[in-house]
Amino acid sequence: MKLHQLDLNLLLAFDALMTQGSVTRASEALFISQPAMSHALGRLRTFFGDPLLVRTPQGMLPTPRAQRLHLGVQQVLRLLEQQLSDEEVFEPRHSKRRFVLCTTDYVECVLIPPLISRLKKLAPGVTIEIRILRDSLPEAELASGEIDLVLGFDEYMQVPGYLGKETWLTEPLAGLVRATRELPEERITLAQLTQMPHVFHSPLGTSEASLDKFLQSQGLSRTISVNSQSYMSAAAIVSQSDHLLVLPRKVAELLADHWPLKSLPLPADVPDYHLNCVWHPVHAQQKALIWLKELMKELVSQEPS
User: Fold this and answer.
1) Within its chain, how far is the Cα of 85 from the centroid?
2) Are 222 and 188 in contact (CB under 8 A)?
3) Pairing state between β 164-171 and 127-132
4) 202, 229 in Cβ contact below 8 A?
5) Which residue from 12, 3, 15, 10 is spatially nearest to 43, judged by alpha carbons?
6) 174 and 266 in contact (C-beta within 8 Å)?
7) Which of 69, 166, 177, 193 could form a disulfide with 181 if both were Cys (CB 3.0 to 4.6 A apart)?
């Protein structure tokens, strides 16, 4: 396959066909005739040696080869568009930009409220959409620009080396117990970590956390009595039982302020959490994205450690 034999316009046609799922709609999107788009599809099929899109009762469906190609083609087109367009201008106070963040409930609780407050003063027209981070990193959405940033802890995501990544926060863990629970010391000991029943906060439905790996390294384990995907339900359970809930310290303190709970430190050698920001290099030079990252990093640094 010779790259110099491929007309760049065919990549634009391929992207339109994959996005629209119809020769007619793709031709309208590129302002060309339907026969011209059909001809482009024929040339693409010849070049790649694959049908690419197959007509079915449900419409034009992409082949596995087309699905694999599309992500790379989108990245190439976005990068070319950035390089060939005029330099982006971003004025926060006058911007109507909507940023999409994929993140955990930790960030929703701790970082988003001060971010919204700051945006009200600096960029009142800017809006934030939150999508909850699931069990896999949304690489395709980062590449296409559908998602601007991903924020999550190390244990929730494996980050490929080609993506941009910064650690914004190192967060110790803390233990939550009901406020009236009396313990020999105002802290959680290693023995109590293994003896007390746990409520396990598992937003991604996982069955193991960094704490479990630490205990295993000590030849120990804990008893998880309840799994919960919500901070609120986990806090409610602990407030009415003798269970222990282990969480990043800032969230533990936040819950203790609103529920009959108290936050206690864990043994010093329990590993910290690391909050990471992840982005796609194709979009790394966007003025708007650089501005948002710097603003959020500033807010994180202002949080009391």
Assistant:
1) 28
2) no
3) unpaired
4) yes
5) 10
6) yes
7) 177
| Nearest C-alpha neighbor of 178 from the set 166, 194, 195, 196 | 196
In terms of DSSP H, where are the helices of 85-230?
Answer: 105-110, 112-122, 139-144, 190-195, 210-217
The tokens for 205 are: 């439905």
Give the residue-averaged pLDDT of 3-22.
86
In the numeric block, the tokens 């009396």 are attached to: 182
Closest CA to 101 of 154, 157, 149: 149
Q: What CA–CA distance (Å, rounded) separates 126 from 98?
A: 6
Kindly report the number of other CB atoms within 10 A of residue 251's CB atom. 25
Phi-psi category of residue 30: left, alpha or beta, with phi > 0 → left and psi -120 to 50 → alpha: alpha
Indicate the residue type of 144: S
pTM: 0.66
**Residue closest to 170 by CA, chosen among 275, 266, 278:** 275
What is the C-alpha R_g of the chain? Answer: 25
Burial class (CB in 10 A: 0-12, 13-18, 19+), 58: exposed
For the stretch 191-203, pLDDT in tens is 999 999 999 987 6
Q: Give mean pLDDT, residues 79-105.
A: 83
How confident is the model over 50-83, as pLDDT tens digits? 999 998 888 889 999 999 999 889 888 887 876 7
| Two tokens, residue 138 | 């949304």
What is the distance of C-alpha 283 from the center of its chain?
Answer: 15
**Pairwise CA distance, residues 265 & 174, whole Å:** 5
Burial of 137 (0-12, 13-18, 19+ CB in 10 A): buried
